[in-house]
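Attaching the record inline, Q. Sequence:
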Amino acid sequence: MNIIPIHLLDRSTVQQFFTIHWGGSPQMVVSTGVYDCSELDGFAAIQDSGEIVGLITYIFKAEECEIISLDSVIENQGVGSALLQQVEAFAAQHGCVTIRLITTNDNLHALRFYQKRGYQIVKVFPNAVEKARQIKPSIPLVSSDGIPIRDELLLIKQLL
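Structure, as predicted:
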């Protein structure tokens, strides 16, 4: 597996990845904005066959890096960890002192993943997903394991 900057890939390939894995749209709607993840900076995990097995996207705001999306096709094989480490190192090299991200209350897998890697929940935005649904109505009301999807959680990690 190789980690490469997304800009080295054809953007249509990146858009296709999001379309397949997100159910039709590369659009991410969170309280910090509306993003087309296929247009953002980031890194891709590529297998020797050339297949994309993971993508992470981010934006920089002054001395802060915000992770917009992190997707791994292969679970528990280090793909997500490698992508996250790549962004953390890149952000630190570019003067960022904080990395932040937003996830939803139902995303227990992501909450577990990020907290194990030093991220801390610092704020809850009650009912923020209702606002996001006004822009992107395809956001489900309930997760696959029955948890109502309604709140956003802000996680932060300070870089050394």
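The helical segments are 11-22, 79-93, 108-116, 128-135. The two ends are 27 Å apart (CA to CA).

More tomorrow.
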